[in-house]
Write a structure and sequence with these properties.
Radius of gyration: 20 Å
Distance between the termini: 15 Å
Mean pLDDT: 86
Order of helices and strands: EEEHEEEEEEEEEEEH
Largest sheet: 6 strands, mixed
Helix content: under 10%
Strand order of the largest sheet: 1-4-13-14-3-2
CATH architecture of the largest domain: 2-Layer Sandwich
Strand content: 35-45%
Structural class: mainly beta
Low-confidence stretches: none
Number of strands: 14
Shape: globular
Number of domains: 2
């Protein structure tokens, strides 16, 4: 099935990215307390809030994405914009494309590429179903707990470090690894993505107002079955 990509022109004002863990009952104690046992199953839920539709191009893009997805059955790669938790060198995000120090640009008005603000690689190959990985910090601040990254459209979030040796961080990840990540693979940190479905068939319903500025909200859920099909 074709996977479409959420257009950059349809940028939301806010993005809510939440992990949904699934636990099962471990039975009740004599005192009636229920024990919850965590499974390695879980998925992502993403809400894009106040997506600005103010131009003809934006409205056309909205319609095109809606028609291409055809409800919950379609697959879409959704960016989750993780600047607020990315471990940037210096601790803050800076634009990658900038003028030179004296304010000059290239003759065509183009900007200077300042290079990435963060670079992290998978140190050792991560197999399907793994819940612990080892990351290698190439460039960035020395804190790889609580960050999000993606590889091939699969989104992950790291937990508290299990061990740190130099630039190598052993960390638990949510969810379990969806598809093999080879050793030395570059991980997407600044703008990770997740392959998802619309949460409902009517998720992209919108009423275009006469003011010509609309701000709809869209909910997505991770397409977990996509990874199961790929692994099978």
């Amino acid at each position: 099935m074709t996977i479409i990509v959420w257009p950059d022109a349809l940028e939301p004002t806010q993005v809510s990215v939440n992990s949904v863990s699934i636990s099962r009952s471990g039975g009740k104690s004599i005192g009636g307390l229920e024990r919850a046992i965590l499974t390695d199953v879980g998925y992502w839920s993403v809400t894009m809030t106040q997506i600005v539709l103010a131009s003809l191009v934006q409205r056309q893009l909205w319609n095109a994405v809606r028609s291409s997805l055809r409800g919950r059955s379609g697959l879409i790669e959704v960016p989750v914009w993780s600047r607020e938790s990315a471990p940037y060198a210096g601790g803050v995000w800076t634009p990658r494309l900038v003028p030179y120090d004296d304010g000059a640009t290239f003759d065509d008005g183009g900007l200077h590429d300042n290079g990435p603000g963060v670079e992290i690689r998978m140190h050792a190959s991560a197999s399907i179903g793994a819940t612990v990985v080892t990351l290698r910090l190439v460039l960035g601040s020395e804190q790889l707990s609580g960050i999000r990254f993606s590889y091939g459209g699969a989104l992950y979030e790291t937990g508290l470090a299990l061990s740190v040796e130099g630039d190598l961080w052993e960390v638990p990840v949510f969810p379990a690894i969806r598809a093999v990540i080879p050793s030395d693979a570059d991980l997407e940190i600044e703008r990770p993505t997740c392959i998802m479905h619309l949460a409902t068939d009517r998720e992209m319903d919108v009423t275009f107002s006469r003011s010509q500025v609309d701000k709809p909200t869209v909910n997505f859920v991770e397409a977990v079955e996509y990874w199961a099909d790929m692994a099978g």
